[in-house]
Amino acid sequence: MAYQIELRHLRYFLVVAQELHFRRAAEKLCISQPGLSTQIKQLEEGLQLPLFHRDKKKVSLTAAGHYFKEEAAFLLNHLERAKTQLRLLGDGHLGELRIGFLGSAMQRVIPDLLVALKKQNPKVRTSLEELSNRAQIDALQRDRLDMGFVRLKRVPPDMVLYPVYRDTFSVVVPKSHGINAANFKGMHELAQEDFILFSQAYSPLYYDTVMSICEDAGFTPRISHKSVHAHTIFKLVENTLGIAIVPTALQYGFDLKVDFIELKNIRQRAVLSAVWKAQNRNPVLPPTIELLKKLHD
């Protein structure tokens, strides 16, 4: 007997796929374990193939189960997204735009966009989430974000990458450091320093660019600490635990005992780009893209 697949089957399947344990999944769903097993069996019969390998010691996903986990999450996310948009429309809003960003985008680009968007479309709601480059791309692919702000040279072929801000880099040193903007002669002077960088996983392009800045000066930086937050990096610099190289725009909004030395005469630049999925169906996205282009053309 082939059962009709219903939304509850997808929700139950996802919890089991995450837990890989029927008892824990049943407790999480507040249903009986036999009842959950029956629902999963109905789903597998409806799909006409097994989604789980089961034995006395463990539960694991089949190849079909791995694939269906992504698809089920995608479908349920779209349903929740549609419900949210409908609620907003019912409340008199035009919809919601979900934006991911790197910290440096918050200095100028995103505030300018949000102010202009509010002026142009005051009935559009926005939500913001600070995420790494990789996490933003993943969320965009899963339609959990509508737009991101990243530092990447390339993105998947189904996405659009639009540069919005080209920044210089600056060296960050403690105020007590002997080198400052007035007497700085070049990066070669800093070859023996410890460096504090954003994590390579957080922004591979930034990491590689900083390495190339140092290599152009004839040395490989000695990295003492890594972080994903600018404030943490600046605090470590303030406490003389190393120096840093960051996009110049990051100097604003912090009140710490550090100095910024802008590297105007190097070839490297910090390029911030907006990114979105070409087939995104959120009706709020196209006018936002046009507004973004007007602000940065």
TrEMBL record:
Classification via Gene3D superfamilies: Periplasmic binding protein-like II (3.40.190.10), Winged helix-like DNA-binding domain superfamily/Winged helix DNA-binding domain (1.10.10.10)
PROSITE patterns listed in its UniProt record: HTH_LYSR (PS50931)
InterPro entries (UniProt xref): LysR_HTH_N (IPR000847), LysR_subst-bd (IPR005119), WH-like_DNA-bd_sf (IPR036388), WH_DNA-bd_sf (IPR036390)
GO MF terms held by the record: DNA binding; DNA-binding transcription factor activity
Keyword Iron annotated: no
Classification via SUPFAM superfamilies: Periplasmic binding protein-like II, Winged helix' DNA-binding domain
Ranges of residues in domain HTH lysR-type: 5-62
Keywords, alphabetical: DNA-binding, Transcription, Transcription regulation
Record bears the keyword DNA-binding: yes
GO CC, any one term: protein-DNA complex
Family listed: Belongs to the LysR transcriptional regulatory family.
PANTHER family for this protein: HTH-TYPE TRANSCRIPTIONAL REGULATOR CYNR, TRANSCRIPTIONAL DUAL REGULATOR HCAR-RELATED
Name assigned to this protein: Transcriptional regulator, LysR family
